[in-house]
Each structure stands twice: as C-alpha cells, then as structure tokens.
Amino acid sequence: MRPFNSACSTDVNMNPVDFKQIITAWLDGSLNEEGRKQLGKLLMLPEYQEQLDAIMKEQQQQGYAMQAEFEESYHAMRRELQSRVQPEPARVFRFWWAAAAAVVVLVAGVWFFNSNQKTTQIVAEQPKPAIEIPAGQEGAVLTLADGSKMILDSMGNGILSHQNGADLMLSNGQLEYKLAGEAAGEETYNTLNTPKGRQFRIMLPDGSVAWLNAASSIRFPTRFTKDVRRVEITGEVYFEAATVMRNGKKLPLVVNADNRFEVEVLGTHFNVNAYTDEPVLNTTLLEGKVAVTSTRSGEKVVLQPGEQASLQTQAGASRELIVRKADAGKVMAWKNGVFDFEDARIDEVMRQLKRWYDIDVKYESGIPDIEFVGKMTRDIPLNGLLIALKKSNVHFRLEGRTLIVTP
C-alpha cells in the first residue's frame, strides 16, 4: 500500500471508511508521520476508540498481523495518555481486544513523544521495566519411567524413545505414543508436565488426546493393559477420549484429579480444572457422558453435555458436588487461545496471569473489589496485557517477575 497522506483533519465526523484506511496504513507500516499525528489525536476521542475496537476485531478475524514495534519510551508515555482519558466511573471494567488497546497506546504515545516536550521529560525520569515478559508458548517436560527427563520445547519431529512396547514421537507439536511390539512385564508410567508459561498436547497410547494448560501434569501408562484405563492429572486438562473395546466391552477411562475427585468416561469430550490454588474444582462435559465422584465424600453425579460438576476446596466448605449449566465458551477459552474475563474478579484474573506468564502476584492492601468483562488473546506479551489493565483503572507496578497490585 502506498503511504497514507493525511490532511490532518480531526473532524469528529470523519467518514468511518477514512478512519479504517488510516488504521490499515498504520498496520502495514505505510502511514506517514503526519498521519500518525492525526491518528494520535483521533484516538483521544471515545467514538474513534470504539471504531478502532471494531476494526481490530475484523482484522484479527482476517489473520492480519500488527507490524509496529514498541517504542522504548512508551511505558512512561501511556501514563500521559491515560491522564487525558476520562476513567469509567463503575468498578466493573471492560477489556478491549488486546490489539486494539495496544494500537491506542502505541500510536498516541508516539504522537506525544514527537509533539510534547513535557512528556519527553517524563520519559527521562521513569525507570524502564526490568524485563519484557512474553506470552506463554508450547512446551513441556516429559519424565520417563527411569526418571530421566526430556525438555520437549527444543526437540524436533521424530521418535524420542521406546517405552515398554510403545514408540514416543513428536509430530507437529504433539507428543504421541504409538504401539510397537509387545509390552514386557507390568505397566510403566510416564509423566508429562507443563511448567508455568507453557501448554502442550499429547496423544495417549489408547488414542485419547489431552491438552494441558499451564502448570499442569498428566501421569499415564505407556501402554494400557488393565481393564480400566487410568490416568492422573493436576492443574487443567481437556480430554477428547477415544473409545476402546476389549472382549466386546467398552474399556472405561478414569481420570484422577489430584486425588480429590475422579471422572469416569466411556468416550467423550470434557475439561477438568483441578488447580490447587482455585477455590472451586470443576469438571465440564462438552460431549458424551461422564460420572464424577468426590474422593472426600464418595458422592457421585452423572453429567449430561453442557453441565458442570463443582467441588469447593476451602476448609469447612460443603463436600457436596454441585451440578449446574456450564459456560462452555468460557471453560474452553484457554484451549482456544483466549483469556475470557467475563464476570471475573481480579484475583481470578491474576491467578490465570500467574500461570500463563510465570509471574508472582502480590496485593499491597488486600484484593480490590473489582470485576471484569471481556476477552483478550493469550498470545500477547504481559506488557501489552497490562496496558488494558491500566485502561481499566487497575493500579500496579511490575518489579522483575512480580506484579504488585496497589490501591
């Protein structure tokens, strides 16, 4: 696209097509300096922020990639931008799509840098963040039966090992177990672990596929030889369970979630959230049929598609399993590459950020009474997400890998 030549008009009645043309030029790097100044002025107006939100959603759906880089000084300049924007009065805040929020701050920040001497003075006085924290990515650690470990992040496609009648291989970001020959002796177990800031996918020896969220694990036999296919998990794992027949009968799959409840499956799609720092443990059924049993009380419930079984974990909480209708979109957001913060309290949001960005979170004066609505992609660096947090009037500072929430 040829460079966009702006007439520098800041008329609030600008044609939406013209505004979209400016944004498109900025995305592909063809917007000239005059156009950047105009865009910076326009983005101070709420009506153009709303137009930008709609345009960025459309661009994301088309796979359009942002090409601009962060300016070294934008961290201080965004404070200047926010001081000129009227904050929302309520303490329920809406996130913009990540790309849209980044454009507002980056473009307006560049404009302030070029045109405002006072802002330049602020840049010189503000310290830079110690580190840039990227978004989580694909990766995991595999522990074999003999205790040896493989870091899968750095390995390419191909066979990794042979374990008791099964070949272990990587194929396009998925760990797979392929049966190859007869098993010898008792079942041997492997464990796949995703550290904070990592997620991974595995095809188990029975053909079931499991997606592990950050800070999760799954322990499984390298070959299922017993009458029940049993695996153990921690954290959050989504399963698409394969149907296995033996002697004319379906072989059940049992998922033990951190020794707190078990999910019995005959062939289905379901998600288990069993993080130890969450106040409620959830099993959500998308397809098929599962039975959930509390290991504390022995209570058992059967779920239908679209239902969720919940178990409170706090001391003194009821041991009863509660069945309710599930918000499947919110439950599966992590697997689909999205943070879904609809009706989420700030402590819930921070727990997700801790796991995905491998950070610590501290509250200087207790947990603020704040709820959020909206969604953000999980592929942006932490600094980009923090722009949206500040837009929502959440105060904090980042010290190394510790995010400190302030009053």
TrEMBL record:
GO molecular function: sigma factor antagonist activity
Spans traversing the lipid bilayer: 92-113
Keyword line: Membrane, Transmembrane, Transmembrane helix
Domain (Protein FecR C-terminal) ranges: 339-405
UniProt KW Ribonucleoprotein keyword: no
InterPro entries: FecR, FecR_C, Ferrdict_sens_TM
A Pfam family of this chain: FecR
Domain (FecR protein) ranges: 191-290
Protein name: FecR family protein
Organism: Pseudobacter ginsenosidimutans
